[in-house]
Amino acid sequence: MNVLEIENLRKVYAGGFEALKGIDLTIRKGEIFALLGPNGAGKTSLISIVCGIVTKSGGTVRVHGHDIESDYRAAREHVGLVPQELTTDAFETVWDTVRFTRGLFGKPGDDAYLEDLLKRLTLWDKRKSRMMELSGGMKRRVMIAKALSHEPDILFLDEPTAGVDVELRRDMWELVRSLRSGGTTIILTTHYIDEAEEMADRVGVIRKGEIVALGEKDELMRRMGRKTLKIFLETPLNAIPPSLSDWDVHLDDDGSTLCYDFDGHAEESGIPRLMRRLDESDIAWKDLTTRQSSLEDIFVTLVNEEKQA
Ligand SMILES: Nc1ncnc2c1ncn2[C@@H]1O[C@H](COP(=O)(O)OP(=O)(O)OP(=O)(O)O)[C@@H](O)[C@H]1O
């Protein structure tokens, strides 16, 4: 089941800048979807439109079938947003902050729900603390509590771990997973590849306002990835011999490893011919490995294509 359907979404900011150029995207119930892209790619614009903070210039967006413009209230009820910046009142308590936010959505008070929410986010003990007394990690959790205060089933996290230390990142990842096991669909934006690799079921790569890659994370890595064959040589080489000039090879580890990058899906990898040529050239080797390229390699390739475009 799709909880979010985006068709041909466009955004042109005042001044004429085209931030989104016809985005098509559907999000399935219960998945963790990572929208990955470099700075300025359009990630925040996209989620801000879905959450009703920025108006679109064209296309349609439906949340659980409700159009975000003609059926705004129904659509908005389903989504919670954790923005990039922390926005809370320093003097207010955790409890009041979260309770007040729920009220903003016109929801009747439900202290039992909020108690459960704060317990899930391990904030219950801090409910009487004022925001300024909390650590950075706790403040972030309060932002999540605010976003979930009106009981949405879709949670948007805009760069959830930007500028956060390693331990806190791990905590955040774990928290997001636990929210998902509780039934919440999660859409997060990130420019950290490892974050997408670690968390996402599906990944969309956005570049200059366009989705340039989309798919199951594992499938995307298989489909787009290249492979590298590493051949560990008996004797290091100073340079690539002319006899190997037909292959895309380079030397690593001070000449002791010969690396061959190839398309893992091509009909012919070129490996058997390369191995024969090594034999004919009297280049002895002791071991070899192949490595599937990571999401990082794919991302770097896509971003480099952008620079060349
Ligand atoms: N209010 C605005 N007016 C004009 N241009 C804007 C406005 N908001 C964003 N932009 C531009 O739209 C583009 C996309 O911005 P957006 O914030 O959506 O990117 P992003 O992928 O979220 O980047 P980041 O990771 O840096 O937050 C950028 O070039 C940005 O400068």
TrEMBL record:
It comes from the Bacteria. SUPFAM superfamilies: P-loop containing nucleoside triphosphate hydrolases. Keywords: ATP-binding, Nucleotide-binding, Transport. Pfam families: ABC_tran. InterPro entries: AAA+_ATPase, ABC_transporter-like_ATP-bd, ABC_transporter-like_CS, ABC_transporter_ATP-binding, P-loop_NTPase. This is ABC-2 type transport system ATP-binding protein. It comes from Sphingomicrobium lutaoense. Residues 4-233 form the ABC transporter domain. PROSITE patterns: ABC_TRANSPORTER_1, ABC_TRANSPORTER_2. GO terms for molecular function: ATP binding; ATP hydrolysis activity. Gene3D superfamilies: P-loop containing nucleotide triphosphate hydrolases (3.40.50.300).
